[in-house]
Design brief:
The complex is a heterodimer of chains A (240) and B (224). With 240 residues, chain A is α/β, with parallel strands linked by helices. Chain A has 9 helices and 10 strands. In chain A, the strands form 2 sheets. A 6-stranded mixed sheet of chain A has the order 6-7-8-3-9-10, sandwiched between helices. In chain A, strands 2-1-4-5 form a 4-stranded antiparallel sheet, covered by helices on one side. The longest helix of chain A is centred in the last third of the chain and has 16 residues. Chain A starts with a strand and ends with a helix. Chain B has 224 residues and is mainly α. Helices cover 83% and strands 0% of the residues of chain B. In chain B, helix 1 runs antiparallel to helix 6, helix 4 packs across helix 6 and helix 7 packs antiparallel against helix 8. Chain B is flat, with a radius of gyration of 21 Å. The chains are: A alpha/beta (240), B mainly alpha (224). At the A-B interface, helix 2, strand 6, helix 3 and helix 5 of A face helix 5 and helix 6 of B.
C-alpha cells in the first residue's frame, strides 16, 4: 500500500533521513520507535508530503506522490493524519471541524457529512461534544476528535505523529483505546509513538530508527523482546 | 467662535464629509492592496516575498506628502510628457485615494502578514493533511483566526489613515484642513477655526474608536 524507496530528506545541510526503504501493507499496523531527532516524524510527514522529499520515492497505492505533477490534495484525501498537538481548527466547533473537509471537497452533502460525523463522534465516545469549541475540550478529548475528524474523510491509511505525547498521563488510555479499535477494524496505520506497551499489543511490525536510518525492524516480539542490533538494545534499555 | 459656527459650520461639515469619503475610499483600496501584498509576503515563494518587501519598504520610506506630490503631479507628468502619448489627468480625490491606498496598504500588508504568521502552522498542516487546498485552508481556517488578532492593529491603522487625509490638503482636495485654511483666511480667527477643526476630528475619531471597541468585543464572543 505504501512503498518507500531510498527516501532521503535534508533540511539545509542537515540530513534527517538517509536512504529509507520499507513497505506498509494493507491492514498493517506499523509502529515507529526511536530516540528524538532520529527522523521518525519527518519520515511520517514524507508519507503525505507535508515535507517535500530530497530524494527517493514514496508510492501510495501505486502513485509516486513525490512526482511534481501528482495532485497531492487528492492523495491526502485518502491519508488521514493525527498530530501530536491535535491541531483542531480553533475557529470551528467540533462538528464543523469534522464536516469542513468532506463538504468542501464534495465527498458528500452537508447532511451526509453531519450524519457521518455524528457516527464518528459516537465511536470515539464524544457524542455530547458536537457543539463545543476545541478550547473547551481536554487534551484526550481533542485528540479523539482529531482522530474522528481524519476518519470522516474515510481514508484508507492513517498516520499518527506521537498522538499521546502531549497528553496528561490519565488521558493517554482513552486515545490508545480509540486507536486499538481502529486497528482491530483493519485500518492501515503508521504510528510514531513512545508507548511501548501499545506497540507490543497492537502493532504487526515495529521499526526502530536512529540517526536517519532504519536500524532494525520486525514483529513486536522480535524487536522489543529479542532485539539484535546494539543500538536497539541500548535504546530499549533506556525506555523500558 | 459662534460666528464661525453659524457662518461656516455647514461648509466645515461638508468638508468633514469629504474627509470621511476620502478616508473610506482610501481604506477600501488599502484593504485590497494590503491583502494582496500581505498574502504575497506569506507565500512560500521567494520572488513574491521580495516584491512585497520592496513595496512595503518603498512606501514606508517616503513621507506621505512626497507620495502625494508624486502621485498628483509626478505620475501625469511621467505618462503624458516623459513617456508621452497618454493623457492622464488625476483629480485631487483620485490622487488622494491612490496615495492613501498605497500608504495605508503598505502598513496593512505588514499587519496582515504578522496576523497570518501568528496562527500556529499546525492549523495549516492539519487542513492540508485533510486534502484541502492552500487557498481553502487559508480562507476557512487561517484567515478567520488571523483576523481576530489583526483587528486592533487594523482599527488603529484606520484612525491613522483618517488623520493622514489632512496631509492631502497640499494637493488641493477640499477636505477639512484645506477648507479650514480658507475659513481662517476669511475671518482671521485662527485660534477659533483650528480649535473647531480639532474638536471635529476628535469627535469623529472618538466615535470610530468606540465602534471599533464594540466590534472587537463582538468578534471575541465565542472565542476561547
Amino acid at each position: 500500500m505504501i512503498r518507500v524507496r531510498n527516501l532521503r530528506k535534508s533540511f539545509g545541510s542537515l540530513e534527517v533521513l538517509k536512504d529509507i526503504s520499507t513497505d506498509v501493507y494493507e491492514g498493517e499496523v506499523v509502529v515507529m520507535i526511536g530516540p528524538s531527532g532520529s527522523g521518525k516524524s519527518t519520515f511520517l510527514r514524507c508519507l503525505n508530503r507535508l515535507e517535500d522529499v530530497t530524494g527517493g520515492s514514496v508510492e501510495v497505492d501505486g502513485v509516486d506522490i513525490t512526482a511534481r505533477k501528482v495532485n497531492i490534495n487528492k492523495v491526502r484525501e485518502n491519508i488521514g493524519m493525527v498530530f501530536q498537538h491535535f491541531n483542531l481548527f480553533n475557529n470551528l466547533n467540533v462538528m464543523d471541524n469534522m464536516t469542513l473537509a468532506p463538504v468542501q471537497l464534495k465527498k458528500c452533502t452537508p447532511a451526509e457529512a453531519k450524519k457521518r460525523a455524528e457516527d464518528m463522534l459516537g465511536k470515539v465516545g464524544l457524542s455530547d461534544k458536537a457543539g463545543s469549541y476545541p478550547a473547551q475540550l481536554s487534551g484526550g478529548q481533542k485528540q479523539r476528535v482529531a482522530i474522528a475528524r481524519a476518519l470522516c474523510m474515510q481514508p484508507d491509511i492513517m498516520l499518527f505523529d506521537e498522538p499521546t505525547s502531549a497528553l496528561d498521563p490519565e488521558m493517554v488510555g482513552e486515545v490508545l483505546q480509540v486507536m486499538k479499535n481502529l486497528a482491530s477494524d483493519g485500518m492501515t496505520m503508521v504510528i510514531v509513538t513512545h508507548e511501548m506497551g501499545f506497540a507490543r499489543e497492537v502493532s504487526d511490525r515495529v521499526i526502530f530508527m536512529d540517526g536517519g536510518y532504519i536500524v532494525e525492524e520486525g514483529t513486536p516480539e522480535e524487536l522489543l523482546l529479542h532485539p539484535k542490533e546494539a543500538r536497539t538494545i541500548d535504546f530499549l534499555n533506556k525506555v523500558l | 467662535m459662534v460666528r464661525i459656527i453659524t457662518s461656516y459650520g455647514g461648509l466645515l461639515l461638508t468638508a468633514m464629509g469629504r474627509t470621511l469619503l476620502l478616508a473610506l475610499l482610501g481604506l477600501f483600496f488599502a484593504c485590497i492592496v494590503g491583502l494582496f501584498f500581505g498574502m504575497m509576503s506569506v507565500l512560500k515563494n521567494r520572488a513574491c516575498n521580495i516584491i512585497a518587501q520592496i513595496f512595503v519598504d518603498m512606501v514606508r520610506g517616503v513621507p506621505m506628502i512626497v507620495l502625494a506630490f508624486f502621485v498628483y503631479f509626478g505620475m501625469p507628468y511621467l505618462f503624458n510628457t516623459i513617456i508621452g502619448g497618454f493623457n492622464v489627468v488625476l483629480t485631487a480625490l483620485q490622487a488622494g485615494t491612490i496615495c492613501l491606498a498605497l500608504n495605508c496598504g503598505a502598513y496593512m500588508s505588514e499587519i496582515i502578514r504578522a496576523g497570518i504568521q501568528s496562527v500556529d502552522v499546525g492549523q495549516m498542516e492539519a487542513a492540508r493533511s485533510l486534502g484541502l487546498s492552500y487557498g481553502t485552508s487559508m480562507r476557512k481556517i487561517v484567515l478567520p483566526q488571523a483576523i481576530r488578532t489583526m483587528i486592533p492593529s487594523i482599527i488603529n491603522q484606520f484612525i491613522i489613515t483618517l488623520k493622514d487625509t489632512s496631509i492631502l490638503s497640499v494637493i488641493g482636495f477640499p477636505e477639512l484642513v484645506n477648507t479650514a485654511k480658507n475659513v481662517q483666511a476669511n475671518t482671521f480667527m485662527s485660534f477659533q477655526t483650528w480649535a473647531i477643526v480639532g474638536v471635529m476630528y476628535l469627535i469623529v475619531i472618538t466615535i470610530l474608536s468606540r465602534c471599533a471597541k464594540l466590534l472587537e468585543r463582538r468578534l471575541n464572543v465565542g472565542r476561547q
